[in-house]
Amino acid sequence: MLTFRYVSAILIGYLLGAIPVGYLAGKARDIDVRKYGSGHTGGTNVLRSAGPLPALLTVLGDVLKGMAAVLIARAILPTPIAEALAGLGAVAGHNWSAFIGFRGGVGTMTALGALFILSPKALVIVAPLGIIAALASGYASVGSLTVSFTVPLVLLCLTVVSSQPPAHLLYGVGVAAMIALSLRGNIQRLRAGTEHRIREKARRRE
C-alpha cells in the first residue's frame, strides 16, 4: 500500500505537470509555440512567439502545477519523500508531456512552484538569483541554469542548518538534472553565441 501511494504521488505529479499550459496558451492565438524559437512550451518562448498575456498565463499555470503536485502528494502520503517525488513528477511531466508528443519546456517555473511548497526559505533565495542571472545576461536559459544549480545547494544548506527534510535533497538533485538535460540545445547555443535573448522575437523553426 505504501509503495502504491508513492507511485501515485509520482503519477499525479506527472499528469499535472504534463498539462501543456504554454502550448494551449499559444493555440488560443492560433500559434503552435513548438514551431518557434527554442521549441519549448515555457513562458519565455511563449512570450517571444505569442505575446505577453499568453506568457503570463503560462508562467502562472506552470507554477501552479508544481504547487498542486506537492500539495496533493502531501494529502495522499504526508512524507518528505512523497512530496519530493511528486515535485519531480511534475517537472518531468512539464518537460516531457505525454499530451504533446513528450515535448515541453525546461521546467523552471514548475520546479519553483513545487519548491514554494517544499521550502519557502529556499525559494526566496533561489528565485531572485535566477531572475538576476536572467536579467543580467539577457538569456532566460542562464536564469534557468542558475536555478538548477542553486536548488540542490540551497536545500543542502538548509538541511544542515535547519529542519529541512534530507529527503528533499532528492528533489533538488533531480530538478537540477532535468533542467540541465532540457537545456542541452540552449547550452550549445550559449557556447556558440547564437542563443536567443529574452526579448528577441522568436523565428519559425524550419
How would you characterize this protein structure?
α2 (21-27) runs antiparallel to α4, α4 crosses α6 and α7 (120-137) runs antiparallel to α8 (140-161). The chain has helices at 2-17, 21-27, 43-50, 52-76, 80-95, 108-118, 120-137, 140-161, 168-182, 184-192. The mean pLDDT is 95. The longest helix has 25 residues, at 52-76. By secondary structure, the protein is mainly α. Helices cover 71% and strands 0% of the residues. It has one domain (2-192). It has ten helices and no strands.
Give keywords.
206 residues, single chain, mainly alpha
User: Helicity, in percent?
Assistant: over 70%
The number of domains is 1
Binned strand content: under 5%
Distance between the termini: 49 Å
Q: Mean pLDDT, nearest integer?
A: 95
- The number of E-state strands comes to 0
**What is the tally of helical segments?**
10
Q: Identify the overall geometry.
A: globular
Give unreliable regions as ranges.
none
Largest sheet: none
* H and E order: HHHHHHHHHH
Radius of gyration (Å): 16 Å
Task: Please identify the structural class as seen in this structure.
Answer: mainly alpha
Please sum up the structure shown.
The chain has 206 residues and is mainly alpha-helical. The protein has helices at residues 2-17, 21-27, 43-50, 52-76, 80-95, 108-118, 120-137, 140-161, 168-182, 184-192.
Spell out the blueprint of helices and strands.
Blueprint: H1 2-17, H2 21-27, H3 43-50, H4 52-76, H5 80-95, H6 108-118, H7 120-137, H8 140-161, H9 168-182, H10 184-192
